[in-house]
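User: Second chain of the day. Same drill as before.
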Amino acid sequence: MHAETKDEMRDKILEAALKRFTHYSASKTTMNEIADDLHCSKASLYYYFPDKKGLHFAVLEKIGEIFISEQEAEGENIISAEQTLLNILEVKRQFLERYCRLELFKILNDNSEGTQRMIKEVKNREDALLARIIEYGVKIGEFAVDNPKQLAELYNQAMFGLRFAAVDCFQINTDIEAEHLEMILAQQKLLTEIFVKGLKYR
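Assistant: Same format as last time:
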């Protein structure tokens, strides 16, 4: 029972931090403000998280699961492989709009073991999802390829590369501006259209 209570309190802290970070950004939020929202002491927060960076990372882990789960949901009832790939881009767009103040792109430059582990896990799940979508496209005659897994990894690497390239366009510590978001998504959509054309039967 004690452990369950601790887990519940940790979840409440994460929810409060996520709400604050989403509205005001992580860099502009203090631990005192989160503690005030929860009507608890700042010391209580440090019992669960070593510092604000640790709390920020835990929040990013939480939304990382949301990020990949929402994509995987699109792969549950595939009718068209091409449309599913485009639907996933829309999921990503909505996700980035919802969490644009979380300083998401900071994570791309964080080489800590925990961050790299999280990025790798998300990438592996994305690779598996994309392979399943391409395999379905082959099954229904939409695509004509014999190496879905390799193509899924290549596509995902290319998409990831566009995210890294976009980082060069703005300061890593700032929120994602609307025009930068649209630029990233427009490039990803164009890449997807080119990629899909190469997979189709002629």
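Residues 103 and 173 are 7 Å apart (CA to CA).

User: Great, on to the next one.
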